[in-house]
Amino acid sequence: MADSNGSHAPRSPFRVWSAFVWSLQGLRACWQLESSFRLEVYLFVVLAPLGLWLGADGVERAILVGSLLGVLVVEVLNSAVEAVVDRWGAEHHELAGRAKDMGSAAVFLADMNVLLCWGLVLGPRFL
């Protein structure tokens, strides 16, 4: 973060801690308010250990587990977009609908990425 004269001040441990606390608050809000996020976390809890076990080396494990983590990241961002759009009102607006649809499409693409990664890494082993 730049100060008023444009220089970058080092982050103090307090600022880093504050950022960590805000991140936890965001995760808590997603968990409490978004059933789709909870579902993705449940899938992560089941599939991540499986990916760690089935991956032949560090790269494969990173691909298998990282693709799952990517879904959680996109799900949090989609929830943030939806919250901002809903903040501005319940009336239908073309741009608001488009933003929500695009967020949903991002989650879908992240899900497809998981299938692609898992299929390419594990498919040859089982075929």
From TrEMBL:
Substrate binds at residues 15, 28-31, 61, 75, 104. Its EC number is 2.7.1.107. A divalent metal cation binds at residues 34, 82. The active site is at residue 75. InterPro entries: DAGK, DAGK_prok, DAGK_sf. Keywords: ATP-binding, Cell inner membrane, Cell membrane, Kinase, Lipid biosynthesis, Lipid metabolism, Magnesium, Membrane, Metal-binding, Nucleotide-binding, Phospholipid biosynthesis, Phospholipid metabolism, Transferase, Transmembrane, Transmembrane helix. GO terms for biological process: phosphatidic acid biosynthetic process. It is a multi-pass membrane protein. Mn(2+), Zn(2+), Cd(2+) and Co(2+) support activity to lesser extents. Its cofactor is Mg(2+). Coiled coil: none annotated. One of its GO terms (molecular function) is ATP-dependent diacylglycerol kinase activity. It catalyses: a 1,2-diacyl-sn-glycerol + ATP = a 1,2-diacyl-sn-glycero-3-phosphate + ADP + H(+). Pfam families: DAGK_prokar. GO terms for cellular component: plasma membrane. It is found in: Cell inner membrane. PROSITE patterns: DAGK_PROKAR (PS01069). ATP binds at residues 15, 34, 82, 91-93, 100-101. The chain crosses the membrane at residues 37-56, 62-81, 102-121. Catalyzes the ATP-dependent phosphorylation of sn-l,2-diacylglycerol (DAG) to phosphatidic acid. Involved in the recycling of diacylglycerol produced as a by-product during membrane-derived oligosaccharide (MDO) biosynthesis. Belongs to the bacterial diacylglycerol kinase family. This is Diacylglycerol kinase.
